[in-house]
Amino acid sequence: MTRVEVAIVGAGFAGLGMAMALRRSGRESFVILERAASVGGTWRDNTYPGVACDVPSHLYGFAAHPHPGWSGVYARGDEIHRYLQDVAEREHLGDRLRLHTPMLSARWSDGRWLVETGGATPGLIEADALVLACGRLTEPEVPDIAGLEGFAGPLFHSARWDHTVDMAGARVAVVGTGASAIQLVPELARVADHVTLFQRTPAWIVPRDARPYADAERDLFATHPEALDRLRAELYTEGEARFASRSGDAEASVRATRIALDHLHAQVADPQLRAALTPDYAFGCKRVLLSDDFYPAVASDRVTLEPSALAEVDGRTLVAADGGRHEADVLVLATGFASTRQPYAPLIRGEDGVTLDEHWSEGMTSFGSTVVSGFPNLFVLNGPNASLGHNSSVLMVEEQAAYAVRALAARDAVGGVLRVDPAAEEAYTDEIARAAASTPWITGGCRNWYVDERSGRLTLLWPGTVDAFRSRLARTDGSEFLGADARRDARVHDGSVRDGKLHDGAVAPDEGEERP
User: Fold this and answer.
1) Which of 143, 176, 387, 497 is found 20 to 30 A from 339 (Cα to Cα)?
2) Regarding the domain delimited by 148-204+253-333, which CATH topology (the fold level of the hierarchy) does it fall under?
3) pTM of whole model > 0.85?
4) Could you say which residues of the chain have pLDDT below 70?
């Protein structure tokens, strides 16, 4: 049995960020469990053609590890993977990493976590605290489609790309029009004989305005770090400003909608195709996508848009919900991930023997988007209400890791065990619900991956700016934990919630929140 203070599960941005925060606070007794062969998380797993980030590259990284060498305004997936590998090396995390080592289970027992591992390093780890940094978009969602498994050709999910399949000259079908699909469809259209795209719901798409950085720009960033600092600050401010259009501010939404429609009209001449690509729900209700080449690809003679869902598979014949029939040699599922029901949740058993999945049976809940009642000394990064739709999710991870380190430092005040007050978790959950109630995520007339269908609650997104989240966690006083001497029974309402919304720099009384 291995004994450590902290066991971290996952070696993507969240896991590495947590390890860095622990080390900077002077804590060296930790281990990082990673089921795959390297660090990198989603940027290791997603290798489909055209994969890239839709957050500007100089904002999508750790504050302590600026990277002047990004190839362009938006980084490719392989670049981000290499960046995370480099961070792990520069932070000397090699001896703390256990690769090819999945967490099989974790249970709270006698004041510590017992973590069972498999793979290359099977055994038991005893840890005072457990950090789940498993990501929220890790397990592909495979739709229930009649005959799917009998498709007479290569079939795979975009997040598990099969590079042995030659797309040249093939008839390729893609199911889905989300963030992955709009990146890979233009790439496939360049090599395949033809692409058929099944669209259940069109997306709001705005210009990406991507461009490579010139050598002179990269040299400037490398030799004048203050210039890179200024750029990061500008990108952060621009990101925070986008919150208004995503969250339903009337004026900002009108402007953003017009930009998206102008983009569509400029790139798609056929009025019938334009109509099929025009969303009928509020801007921001679903994830807003960025692309300069998706519309031209769909408008070309190399792509056929099927404006309905894939309903049935019969050999190589794909039958659409509207009755259309299409032949395909290769079938790619760009159908998203199991986001609202996290795949790690059934593996975690808390103080009363209840699993995290059972605790979250009506949707994920937490206090501070990080800690959960009934699960002592447990921290969940990138979990409940910790995603963003307007700015860099790495910023959220860094704030959560800092909060976890502060909580660990205060453990002595609560007898060495951090037990979340159920009332604090309930109040935080209610506050999130009130803040989200009038936003497009709830009222916009779409189905999105931010909302749990079991409860209708917003469980993925933080319904505020990064500034508001940072302020909220910075001003916690320990009263969220049972046994603390802080003001658990006399919380002060300080006016941070007005008109049902979280306001920048404000902290709601009992509550406390996307992806690249």
Assistant:
1) 497
2) FAD/NAD(P)-binding domain (3.50.50)
3) yes
4) 484-516
